[in-house]
Amino acid sequence: MGAALIVDAVRSPMGRGKAGGALSGTHPVDLLAGVLAALVERTGIDPATVDDVLVGCVGQNLEQSATPGRQAWLAAGYPEHVPSVTIERKCGSSQQAVDFAHWGIAAGAYDLAVAGGVESMSRVPMGSARGDADPFGPAVRARYPRLVPQGVSAELVAERWKLSRGDLDAFAARSHRLAARASFAGEIVPIGGVTVDETIRPGTSVEVLAGLRTSFKSAAFPELDLKVTAGNSSQLTDGAAALLLASEERAAALGLRPRARIVASAVCGDDPVMMLTGPIPATRKVLAKAGLSIGDIDAVEVNEAFAPVPLAWLAEFDLDPERLNPRGGAIALGHPLGASGARLMTTLINHLEQTGGRYGLQTMCEAGGMANATVIERL
């Protein structure tokens, strides 16, 4: 099996996912097309030689309903013979797109593939595809009579790992502080005149966050001491990101200089009621596949869907906290669902390059109690 090399990775700025947000006037197809165009231009590849375009997207309805990767590829003016597919593994959709590209290259099915994601949460509201329908059905509800929304699951995670409101707010303030001082210039490509992330609030403090009301409660768990707020949760966001992956042979033939290689990837399921704990077993699984220990990892990205998620993960692994989400996370940068996996990977690669780190690990919790995990090596 051949290695999958990451040639380049780019992302859009992050815009607030509501009316009036910096990217809310941009159709999601055009948002992704801008990122794809920048990726092709930066790498200098002939777009006609791309085997497939794999795009993560959660809200596959309204303006994101017509295979958005296909429409974005055409909107960028690229050849019609290049296909695209849409992938939905909830928050891990574009991390799964990267994994599928990796597996396709390893199997010899692809030589050159684009993997990425897009989500315009201002134009395609979260949950709008579901409406009032019950996606679980009676058999699942009979097996899990206390299924709850993710926000309540975050409360359950905080309860199990004995995380206080102060712990959550301190981590949220850290996310904004680290993101505000990080240099994202090498990974962001301008979209419609927007050049910087709109979501970061440098002035965020524990004191300010302490004044926010809790956001989630459930009749299923009335005993919970509520701690999760909008301030220590990820932001609704518009964004897109994309990576170019190549086989070793194709990269050499084209004279491409890869930035990283994928060492191992894994996916697993976990308790669908706790829902957000999957990154813990997924991390153990991917480290075993990579033949590495947590001490070998120079930087870890655990998606900040809610502050309890990375804090619970950290409690389970002997890692220097400074190596966890060292450039902030979704609490500050936002969480454009289907694009977040590719955004985290882009940020992780840039961080390893800027700090001289060798190995990076990325993992994301996903609705339904699932998680992806990927280990990369900087080249």
Describe this structure as you would to a colleague.
This is Acetyl-CoA acyltransferase. Keywords: Acyltransferase, Transferase. One of its GO terms (molecular function) is acyltransferase activity, transferring groups other than amino-acyl groups. The structure is a single chain. The protein has helices at 28-43, 68-75, 93-106, 137-143, 150-160, 165-181, 206-210, 248-254, 279-290, 308-316, 330-333, 340-355; strands at residues 4-11, 15-16, 52-56, 84-87, 112-120, 237-247, 260-269, 299-302, 359-366, 370-378. It has twelve helices and ten strands. Helix 1 (28-43) packs across helix 2 and helix 3 crosses helix 12. The chain is globular and about 60 Å long. Strands 1, 2, 3, 4, 5, 6, 7, 8, 9 and 10 form a ten-stranded mixed β-sheet that branches. Strand 9 and strand 10 (370-378) form a beta hairpin. The two termini are 19 Å apart. The longest helix has 17 residues, at 165-181. The chain is of the alpha/beta class and 379 residues long. It has a domain at 5-124 and 236-254: Peroxisomal Thiolase, Chain A, domain 1 (3-Layer(aba) Sandwich). The model has no long low-confidence stretch (mean pLDDT 97). Helix content is 33%, strand content 18%.
Radius of gyration: 19 Å
Q: What is the overall number of helices? A: 12
CATH architecture of the domain at 5-124 and 236-254: 3-Layer(aba) Sandwich
Could you spell the SSE succession in H and E letters?
A: EEHEHEHEHHHHEHEHEHHHEE
CATH superfamily of the domain at 5-124 and 236-254: Thiolase/Chalcone synthase
Broad structural category: alpha/beta
